[in-house]
């Protein structure tokens, strides 16, 4: 609602008063004029019109006044309402002031203050006490839990330690049993092999030189005597069985056990040979001389010889080192290692030798190592694409045992030069000539093996210097071990397969007895004696096994009793 101000109302009343006084003056003037002549009648008419205007003006003013009065009444009502509100507010304020005063009076009273502080203090200290009690209880609980935990932990430790002990014992037991069993197995296999008179063939896989043998999915080892090979992803597996397989990373010493019988056969009057065969870079020199030139097969054989000759001063051990380079035979221990030697045959004994080759007496083990090193210094090696130090010749270390003037036996250890594909090695000139000679003499060796396997009447030993010199060991009176070497690299797979095939075929060779010998009385007697040995070993191993299980039982009983 619009509220009019008091000023605007009083302005309207003032206007009305002014109008009324003007009207009175006008009436007085009119009576004066009425008293005059007719000229005054015109004037009267005008005045009459004017009066009409004034009347209408007056009636409009009256209307305004009544509106203003209404407004005034409304305003008055509003003022009254405000006044009422104000009065009630004042009343409420005074009540509030009273209350505030009362509150202030209460708070300023010291006794009242003390009471409330004490109450709060008491409540607070009570709470604090309760909290402390709770903390103490919790601490005690934690202490108990801790000691329980430590005790449990100790119990668990003792239990686990005990269990571990049992497991270790079991493991050692199993390991010993396994070692014993595999040793017996090997021994039996060796006996069967000797009985059959075969050439022993083992395979050695060198570790990858690029550290990626795990990537080679083509080669798989099955047990300790079988290897399978996939030529391509969709081809079926070829399997090769050997007398023993030496996988990569198997230390050199594992070979020694296999070598023992063949090395010791030298004292039984045999001409034996150990031949390291394989493609270039497959690890033949590593096997024969070791990485340092003194921890290979040669070093092991010499140690074995000295173990016997040291106890028998009548026995003398000698060594010769012959190199077959481009089909010429050289003596690496002679004063002129480049001189070419002739290969001759002693028709009475059947012995084959290089005429004029030095047989150096080995005074001691260290003396032997020195001699070997002096021979190796003259060996023909050179760097090729496939091997940084490739042997370009076949090397024969010939160990002989003499008793007085009598020749007892000999062992030929051959580190053959590696076969290589010229397309792979890209050799030229002198190296190409060497490669051709190497490959040709290796193929002569394969021919000899093939003739032996087929038991041909003529064995082509004389086709190469290598096979001719090895004839005593590769004949029916000889003993031989072929170590085929292969590389695990995938890009050398075809060489690997070729080498494994060569080894596999060699396994079928029977050096003795031949069919006719097998049927002879001597052959039958020999078989019988070997059979007996075989069965006596078998029965003694059964007896030993029984003894072991009995002892184990006793040990277990004793342990139980002590507890
Ligand atoms: N069993 C092994 N463990 C570790 N490294 C090996 C093993 N066999 C071979 N090697 C390494 O492989 C490389 C080639 O070996 P090695 O020279 O013996 O081959 P090779 O067959 O004699 O070759 P070549 O026919 O060309 O003379 C060498 O670096 C050698 O140290």
From TrEMBL:
Lineage of origin: Eukaryota, Rhodophyta, Bangiophyceae, Galdieriales, Galdieriaceae
Gene Ontology CC terms, in alphabetical order: microtubule cytoskeleton
One Pfam family recorded for the sequence: Kinesin
Domain Kinesin motor: 198-509
Family, per entry: Belongs to the TRAFAC class myosin-kinesin ATPase superfamily. Kinesin family.
SMART domains according to UniProt: KISc
Protein name, UniProt field: Kinesin motor domain-containing protein
A GO BP annotation: microtubule-based movement
Binding site for ATP: 278-285
Gene3D superfamilies with a match to the protein in the record: Kinesin motor domain
SUPFAM superfamilies with a match to the protein in the record: P-loop containing nucleoside triphosphate hydrolases (SSF52540)
Keywords: ATP-binding, Motor protein, Nucleotide-binding
Molecular-function GO term, any one: microtubule binding
InterPro entries registered for this protein in UniProt: Kinesin-like_fam (IPR027640), Kinesin_motor_dom (IPR001752), Kinesin_motor_dom_sf (IPR036961), P-loop_NTPase (IPR027417)
Organism: Galdieria yellowstonensis
